[in-house]
Amino acid sequence: MTTDTWQPTDPGVLRLPTGRLIRGRGLRRPLPPGNAPTYAVYLLGTQPPEVPWEFRWLRWPDFRLPADRARAESVLREAWDRAAAERVEIACGGGRGRTGTALACLAVLDGVPADEAVAFVRRNYDRHAVETPWQKRYVRRFAG
User: Fold this and answer.
1) Residue 1: its pLDDT value, please?
2) What's the rounded Cα separation, in Å, for the pair 140 and 41?
3) 20 and 77 Cβ atoms separated by less than 8 Å
4) Which of 50, 93, 131, 138 has the fewest CB atoms lying closer than 10 Å?
5) For 34, left (φ over 0), alpha (ψ -120 to 50), or beta?
6) Is the pTM above the cut of 0.85?
7) pLDDT for 4
8) What is the rounded distance in angstroms from the CA atom of residue 55 to the CA atom of residue 108?
9) What is the rounded distance in angstroms from the CA atom of residue 78 to the CA atom of residue 126?
């Protein structure tokens, strides 16, 4: 990994088993102090505001699943790939349901068994992550 990634102690940072660091956060809260992301994925029902870093928008309404699952898989895979050398952020409004679901999918890409990924994210990111039964099911079925 390069020095362009997050620090493990940065707020909201999840360390995946391979050592990749991904920051999850809620967009309704202020941007944390320190480095800005170099790449972000925003999981929102409506277009996010512009930011000074590169980002992808996944249309993903609150408490739901991604509108386009094939695109979601592609965008999440790109985020996982880029996290090896960049500061990647995954964010939704509150930083728990959609963000937790996406982080659990990234954990699957990183080698965590799909049926253990939600527990992994709850243990290492936020104990309330992944809020709905269908979000849990989405992670269990995520093949990456």
Assistant:
1) 38
2) 21
3) no
4) 50
5) left
6) yes
7) 85
8) 22
9) 23
